[in-house]
Structure formats: structure tokens, C-alpha cells
Design goal:
There is one protein chain. The protein is α/β, with parallel strands linked by helices and 241 residues long. Helices cover 44% and strands 9% of the residues. Helix 1 packs across helix 4 and helix 5 runs parallel beside helix 10. It has a six-stranded parallel β-sheet with strand order 3-2-1-4-5-6, sandwiched between helices. The chain contains ten helices and six strands, in the order βαααααβαβαβαβαβα. This is HAD family phosphatase. It comes from Abyssobacteria bacterium (strain SURF_5). InterPro entries: HAD-like_sf, HAD-SF_hydro_IA, HAD_2, HAD_sf, PGP-like_dom2.
Length: 241
């Protein structure tokens, strides 16, 4: 997919915020496989649409989604513990795949003197373990994790906190996301959302919120280059006008 849904206009860019799973790391399909195995052990079969309801959300919010879906009596914590047990056994054995273009994009941001961070719904300890396993800790020194905010995506808090740590105004921040909740959060934060789809292609709603939808991080890099070079009207007036 080439760049889609790009809106007229742009603005100054000082920083870039990355999601982690499904954006930096090619982990969403792995996680889905072990989630569905765990659900099956507990006598539940989820549709793809139902599963997407927990993608990109922190533990608290995804637990709430699952209880609303499966009932208050469903042992969510036990199911999550089983998923984590098998998931981490797998990544300890097989490692974690990094998405193509990550290193090149980070090098580009350094060259352009742009600040950047990770903002993920995943808890801090798990996030750091994943970055260590993939030798990315030194690449992403600024990290905001899902257990460090009061409200998870699609609430904008996590992105606003990351922007503050980067000393960047929200309107001057590009957010790279693969999930619907992440794109909604970036838009609510007043930032520039770029979607790189992973498990699901964007709906019409998500396309209307995204500055662009691209297939790869290499294409995302091209969009950032384009934004940096444009001086047309402010993007805040662009998407729905």
C-alpha cells in the first residue's frame, strides 16, 4: 500500500513517538496466537473483530474489554497469566523479530536532530525486556509504558506524557501507530498520526483521523521527510475541512 489518506497541509515537526508491539516489533501475530491458545484452554473462542478490541490497550483497559465481552465471572487474570507463560517461553526460545526499517528510521531522526520516544500500552518491565532482547534499549532512551499513565489508549495521556518528556509541543509531534486505539489517541492529543497497519487495515474512521496510512516504516520515513519539507497551511486545519 502506498501512502493513503494524506491530508493537505503540515506543520513543524520536532519529535516522533513510536508504538512498540506491531510497529517496532513484529510481535502482534505472535501475541495473538498465544492469546487465542489461552482463550481456548479456558473454553472461549474469540473472533478476529473481538480480539482487535484488546489490541493496543493496557492491561487494565483490555481486562475491562474482556470482562464486558466474556462476563465478570471469566478468569481474565488467570487467562492472561497462561498467555504470558507460553508467550515468553516462545520469545525466549525464538527471539523477537524487529520490523524492517526501524534502524534506518532511527538513524534518519538522529540525522535530522529530531527527538523520539516509545509510548506503549505494554507495562514497563515487559517493555524493557523486549527492548533488551532486540538490542534496542540504547536506541530508545525515552520510554513511556502503559502502567505509567492513569488512562490507556485511546486516551491521549500516554502521548502527551511522552511529548512532555521530549520537550515537544503536541502539534509538533508525529506518532507512528499500528492500532486503531493508538491512532485515536494520537489524534486526540493533537498530534500527527501516521498508521502502519499490522493486524488490521484501517476503517474509514481511522483513515479520516490519520495523516497518512503506509505499508512500511520506510514509507513512514518518506512521509516525515515530506512533512519536514512542507510549508503549507497548518495540518490542524487539514483532515476534515
Amino acid at each position: 500500500m502506498s501512502a493513503e489518506t494524506r491530508k493537505a497541509g503540515s506543520r513543524k515537526v520536532d519529535a516522533v513517538i513510536f508504538d512498540l508491539d506491531g510497529l517496532i516489533l513484529d510481535t502482534e501475530r505472535i501475541a495473538k496466537r498465544f492469546w487465542l491458545m489461552a482463550f481456548k484452554e479456558f473454553g472461549v473462542v474469540l473472533t478476529d473483530e473481538q480480539y482487535l478490541g484488546i489490541v493496543g490497550r493496557n492491561v487494565r483497559d483490555s481486562n475491562m474489554v474482556l470482562r464486558n465481552l466474556l462476563g465478570d465471572d471469566f478468569p481474565v487474570e488467570e487467562c492472561r497469566a497462561r498467555m504470558r507463560e507460553t508467550y515468553y517461553e516462545d520469545i525466549a526460545r525464538n527471539g523477537l523479530p524487529v520490523k524492517p526499517g526501524v534502524h534506518e528510521l532511527v538513524d534518519f531522526l538522529k540525522m535530522k536532530s529530531l527527538r523520539y520516544a516509545v509510548a506503549t500500552s505494554t507495562a514497563r518491565d515487559i517493555t524493557m525486556r523486549k527492548l533488551e532482547l532486540t538490542n534496542l534499549v540504547s536506541s530508545f532512551e525515552t520510554v513511556v509504558a502503559g502502567d505509567e499513565v492513569s488512562h490507556g489508549k485511546p486516551h491521549p495521556e500516554i502521548f502527551l506524557k511522552a511529548a512532555a518528556l521530549l520537550d515537544a509541543q503536541p502539534r509538533a509531534v508525529v506518532v507512528l501507530e499500528d492500532s486503531f486505539s493508538g491512532i485515536r489517541a494520537a489524534k486526540a492529543a493533537g498530534m500527527i498520526p501516521i498508521m502502519v497497519p499490522d493486524l488490521a487495515q484501517p476503517t474509514e474512521e481511522i483513515q479520516s483521523l490519520a495523516y497518512a496510512v503506509v505499508s512500511t516504516l520506510s514509507e513512514a520515513k518518506e512521509i516525515i521527510e515530506e512533512i519536514l519539507g512542507r510549508t503549507t497551511k497548518d495540518y490542524s486545519h487539514g483532515p476534515n475541512t
